[in-house]
Amino acid sequence: MKDASLLNFVSTTALLCTCFFFFSPVPEVMQMRNTGTCGDVKVFNFVSMFNNTMLWCIYATCKGLYFPQLVTNVLGATCSIFYLLSFWVNAIGSEREDANTKIGISCAIVTVSALYPLTMGVTDTVIRHLGYECIV
Questions:
Q1: What is the DSSP string of the chain?
Q2: How far is CA 128 from CA 54, 62, 106, in A?
């Protein structure tokens, strides 16, 4: 019983840390929205967050890990979409071009990753490959 308590503690702590990570950009995004400019904010961080959370959502769905993995990453994906939209709306000139390119590449990666288990079937090998992609 002691081992289960430790596992629950570690899982809960990881969940809280992950949520903190997802909400940490809120102050700079709100400043960006209030000023109407992107300032020093770079789109790459938000694109990375989107890619990472979406890939983990695909992996968690294929693996059947609905709570906390899928739920947590859906929350993160939602936050990252809000951050990306906020950046895109406030970006001008080369910032917007850079955002368009990076968002396009990210969406292509996520689409191909989502199509992989749909076309090949959800097998242990496919799940393992998706896991590798999430880690990289």
A1: -HHHHHHHHHHHHHHHHHHHHHHTTHHHHHHHHHHTS-TT--HHHHHHHHHHHHHHHHHHHHHT-IIIIIHHHHHHHHHHHHHHHHHHHH--THHHHHHHHHHHHHHHHHHHHHHHHHHH-S-HHHHHHHHHHHH-
A2: 16, 10, 21
Residues 42-76 pLDDT 10s: 999 999 999 999 999 999 999 999 988 899 999 99
- Cα 134 from Cα 53, distance rounded (Å): 9
Sequence-distant (6+) residues with CB within 8 A of 103 are: 43, 47, 50, 84, 88
Q: Helices 43-63 and 94-120, interaxial angle, to 10°? A: 10
Verdict on whether the full-model pTM lies above 0.85: yes
Would you call the peptide bond into 68 cis, given omega within 30 degrees of 0 as the criterion? yes
Distance CA 23, CA 130 (A): 25
